[in-house]
Structure formats: structure tokens, C-alpha cells
Amino acid sequence: MLRTSTRLAAALSVVALALAPAQAGYAQAARKPAAVKAPVGALAPAASPEALGFDSARLARLDAYMANVVNSGRVAGMTTMLARHGKVVSFKTYGKKNLTAGTPMTEDTIFRIYSMTKPITGVAMMILFEEGKWRLDDPVTRFVPEFKTLKVMTGTDGNGVPILEDMKRPPTMREIMSHTAGFGYGLQDEHPVDKMYREKRVLGSNGLKDMIDKTATIPLVFQPGTSWRYSSSVDIQGYIVEKITGQTLGQFMQDRIFRPLKMNDTAFYVAAPKADRLAAVYAFNRDLGKIQEADKIFDNPLPTYLQPPTMESGGGGLVSTTMDYARFCQMLLNGGVLDGARILSPASVELLGTNVIPKNVLVNSNGTSGARFNEAVGFGLDFMVVNDPRAAGTLEGKGTISWGGAAGTWFWVDPTNDLFFVGMIQRLGGTGGDDLGTMARTLTYQALLHPEK
Q1: What pLDDT sits at residue 339?
Q2: Cα pseudo-dihedral 1, 424, 59, 451, rounded to 10
Q3: CATH code linked to domain 135-245
Q4: Where in the chain are the domains?
Q5: CA neighbor of 395 nearest in space, from 448, 452, 329
Q6: Strands 300-301 and 296-297: what pairing?
Q7: What is the pLDDT, as a whole number, of residue 299?
Q8: Angstrom distance (rounded) from CA 299 to CA 13
Q9: DSSP secondary-structure letter at 342?
Q10: Mean pLDDT over residues 252-257, rounded?
Q11: Residue 202 in 3-state DSSP?
């Protein structure tokens, strides 16, 4: 994405790196260069890239770069979609969705989006926020009393035994939506808390209540609100959605997000009639010097995604298609509505993309500290936020929000320029070269010669 956020993405581990102008207040304040309002209808092809301010010859650099990533064997296949003012500028497919079968990548290929689930869970939470079901500064223990006795790990003694202290206060809802609550994750195991997450198989729990019960036995990494650390807190949000609504997370998302937005292929597993559309997922084999089909993720067996999971993970459990996720992005760009389906108000969309990280809070991941948020890059409610793109070293617009997934999927939504981009690949652990999200941003915006259009 940008030099600063590339460092952040590395620090965040496993994820690469969404918001928008609408019909009202936020749109007008955020998007000054663009004279055209985003329509509230469905995505349609643009008459030409030039009609939306792009130079076709320059935009071809983006296509050539992504094609080379596939042709060089770094990934098996890819899809990319770029849209502006509600029109599709480019929708490309490259390579294969399964190398063994030789099946080509298609526009309707289904991908494991992993942590790109998180922004959708954030929207689910905001639906309930708008209904008055919770407030940002509510203690999480209002909904998860199991966390009332959480301890905080301050170090280890000479024998490696954790040194614990009491919480000074419970984490707030704002903090679990911005990874400042202090929870671990278990994606890596450098920190003792993350080792506990792995040993207790928190991410492999038998349902969200089981996940909560396990998490309640593991100390926090730091006192709530004092640091930033990528965490399991979005899975905790999924449990809170279930606790408030009495529905499963999947049922709530289907009723309130997927069905209204016509995201017909987004779910926590792939139904049998669609199984042949699921792309294979790959990892780099150092011994072979090439990618091969993966069978593990974070030292756990790779789920097939062909049957309902034991736990519907709000932090990383969904599958989706490029077009489905594009409809989610366009809803945000429209200020919470698409095709007449109102998901959120414009003000709530604005809140999702507003930085909530206090000054001087450190980015902390797996026991290391990275860049500080708040100067150029911040974090909102389940979205990363670009506060000052030029200071951050990127060409995108102010207020851009984004995130990515463990298999290399990425997206961003730029309210200033009224555009979004969705990129889908299936390779665990990165692409073995330049970050695709960073390169896609550079190659997209160098082609946007007339943002006033």
C-alpha cells in the first residue's frame, strides 16, 4: 500500500493490508477532487477508463504487472477489480484456480478471504450499534462477563513462568474493534500469550462460546488501551453479535448483509453445488522452490471449507467472490446503501473509517514494536485508515480504508477519489516479492490522470 503501511502489514503478520463517499455529509467533506457522486445502484461497466479519469495506456501497466506475478509462478491465479463512481473500470482474471486440475480462473471463482471477514463483522457490529444495542465505551464484560477476571501478563520469571497482574479496567467495545484491548491471537508463537492460544486451540474452538471460555483463561498481553496488537478480538465481536441477537453470526450476516446486498456466494462454507468454483490455496515450498497446494495454516490442518465449520469465525472464516466483495465495497462508497438496500447510515460508515487509536500507541505484534499509528496511518473500527496519504508515501486519497487476508487477498476503498479495488489470490504467507496491495495502489493511481472527472 504505502511504505509506512507496508511496514505495518509486515508487523501485523499474516495479513496484507475500505470507505466511502455517500450521498450526504461525509461524502461531501471527504471527496473534493471528484465532481461526480457515486450512484446508489449496482456496478456496471464503464464506457471507457478515460470516462472515469484513467489513462488506458498507463492502466495497462497494472494489468501487465499482475499478469507477470501469475506467469512467474508466484501465484496460481488472480482476479482484480477496479471501480470508480459505481462503474467497473477493469475486471481481470489471470491464471488458474487449480493448477492440478488446470481449471482457469473465472470471474465467479470463490476465495477464502480470511481476515477480509473482519470488515464485514465490523459492519455487523455497526448495525447493532445503530439499534442502540451497545456503545463504544461500554465494557466488553457487559456482554462477556467471562472476561471479568482476566489477568495481564507483564513478563516471565527466571523459570519462564508468566508474571500476572489484575486488569486496571475491562477492555471497551472501542478497544476490541481497534485491536487495543490486549488479546492475543496465536497466529505466531513468539509471545507466551500466543503460545497459550495455540496450545488451547482457541481458533479451533467448538463454537464461539467455547472460544470465549478458552480466551477467558489466557492473560492479556497488555493493559487495555495501552498498545495495539493484532488479535482475536473480531472473533469476540462475532460472539457478541450472537449474544445480542440470539442468531448465529452466519444467520445474522445472511439476513442483514449478504441477502440485502445480493452477496450470494459469501458464507462460512461453500455449498456442494458450488464446490467446483472454490480455488485451491497454495504456499511456497522452499525445498521445491515453487508453490504447491497447502495442507496447513498456522500449523493447523487447512479446512476444506466444503462443510459448515465448528466455529463461525468473525475474524477470518468467510469465503467470497470478487463481485460479492465489490458489492460490499460499493455499499460503503454509497454511504451504507446499494440497490435500495440500506445497511448503515452515512454517519456510521464515516465512524467505521475514523481513526480511534490514541496518539503514541505503539503497533505491537508478536512481541515486537513497529511504527506508531496516528501520524499518517491509523485504525478505525475493524478497518485500517490512511490519515495523510502523502506523508505515508502513497498515492491514494485521504480517508482510504483497507484490510487483507492470510491467503493474499486485499482491498481498499478510497472516499476521496470515489473508487475501490479488490484483489484476490490464494497463497499463504505472502507472494515472495513486492506486496501486491502496494503495487496495485501505485499502478492504479499513476493512471488516474483526471481525478476531477
Answers
A1: 95
A2: -60
A3: 1.20.58
A4: 3-129+249-445, 135-245
A5: 448
A6: antiparallel
A7: 76
A8: 15
A9: E
A10: 98
A11: helix
